[in-house]
Design a protein that fits this description.
Bound molecules: uridine-diphosphate-N-acetylglucosamine
Helix content: 40-55%
Number of helices: 17
Largest sheet: 7 strands, parallel
Shape: globular
């Protein structure tokens, strides 16, 4: 059986890494890695390959940026060539980026079995490009690997058959535990000594937060006010930096207690946020990772496709207006933050469950 794994953008790399680690552990060699290059900068892509021990991709599709249609179309054209040449039995896609959808459509039309890791998540907000990608990818997937209970419910409501749905837990958390364990075994005295100052971490890149000047400005004003009480570190996505500059917000930030940094590598970022007192984000994955390590997370959105992080974890949805963000922070400093617990099957063994299902299938 030949399997193709697809990566395209930053949040894909840490989800594919544990699956490849599992392939290596059981000595399964008949797989290929395809990088669509939706993300192409060193900080957005290459550094993750180095750190996450990912093999050099067998194919680079050189697709890059563009409008949604351009990006999706370019990936489809190039990925179809790979499928013609390699004739895989199964394609594995992860997450909800444009590359995920593009490769899903191609696979299905060539009658290749498609496995979607992180299936069933729904924000019910069709203005998010990722929501469109999730729904359409699940619509054509043969294997739906689900990370939290809401995903099971959503897929059943959408008429998926029980035999297609596998509740396996969260591969991103597999990766997190792998690196936390590694860090703990290499930790030395000076590491712990340097971590005493209180600070918060910020990440922002959703179009709904950074594409409209008044919204972005409100968020920045709230964060500047918060940074007077607790310094903030903000590793900034290239698009968010571009908009910050063009909206004239960069000077405000530079003269505040918010420290801008270029995008960080996986390990640099983990070292930063794991000891933070609070994280402000609009990322999907960070909502989950903070829940797994018990770090308070304020999500600057009105909805989440990962409701378990709110129901059971440390995540709070605070919206994206200046008032709601400052209000939530005031509650937090009064000691009203959530404790949270680790969701079911977020135990570091999700990749093993996925690979077990796929290899069993090949024997059937
Ligand atoms: C994409 C994903 C989003 C994910 C995010 C993580 C989609 C629809 N969105 O959003 O779900 O959370 O990645 O980062 O797939 N750019 C660079 N260097 C790069 C990549 C991008 O400078 O290596 C700039 C380009 O100007 C590009 C823009 O960022 O046009 C946006 O990149 P794109 O991949 O379209 O979407 P993201 O906003 O990164």
């Amino acid at each position: 059986m030949k399997i193709i794994l697809v990566v395209g953008a930053r949040p894909n790399f840490m989800k594919i890494a544990p699956i490849i680690r599992e392939f290596k552990r059981i000595n399964f060699k008949d797989f290929l890695l395809v990088h669509t290059e939706q993300h192409y900068d060193y900080e957005m892509s290459k550094v993750f390959f180095d750190e996450l021990e990912l093999p050099v991709p067998d194919y680079f599709l050189n697709t890059g940026s563009g409008t949604h249609a351009e990006q999706t179309a370019k990936v489809m054209v190039e990925f179809e060539k790979v499928c013609f040449a390699e004739k895989p039995d199964i394609v594995i896609v992860v997450g909800d980026v444009n590359s995920t959808l593009a490769c899903s459509i191609v696979s299905k039309k060539l009658d290749i079995k498609l496995a979607h890791v992180e299936a069933g998540l729904r924000s019910n907000d069709m203005t998010m490009p990722e929501e469109v990608n999730r729904i359409l990818t699940d619509a054509v997937s043969d294997f739906l690997f689900v990370s939290e209970e809401s995903g099971l419910k959503n897929l059943k409501n959408e008429g998926k058959k029980d035999e297609q749905i596998f509740f396996v837990g969260n591969v991103m958390i597999d990766n997190l535990y792998y690196y936390i364990n590694k860090m703990n075994t290499t930790k030395n005295e000076s590491d712990t000594a340097s971590l005493k100052e209180k600070y918060g971490v910020v990440t922002l890149h959703r179009p709904s937060n950074i594409d409209i000047k008044s919204t972005y400005q409100g968020i920045i004003e709230a964060l500047i006010e918060i940074s007077r009480d607790m310094p903030l570190v903000f590793p900034i996505h290239p698009r968010s930096r571009k908009n910050m500059e063009s909206f004239g917000l960069l000077e405000l930030v530079n003269s505040s207690n918010i420290k801008l940094q270029p995008p960080l590598s996986y390990i640099e970022f983990l070292e930063l946020w794991k000891d933070a007192n609070i994280v402000f984000t609009d990322s999907g994955g960070i909502q989950e990772e903070t829940t797994a390590l018990g770090v308070p997370c304020f999500t600057l959105r009105k909805n989440t496709e990962r409701p378990i992080t709110v129901d059971e974890g440390t995540n709070t949805l605070v919206g994206n207006t200046k008032e709601t963000i400052i209000d939530a922070y005031s509650h937090f400093i009064m000691g009203k933050s959530k404790q949270g617990r680790i969701p079911e099957l977020w135990d570091g063994k999700s990749a093993k469950r996925i690979v077990d299902v796929l290899l069993k299938q090949s024997l059937a």
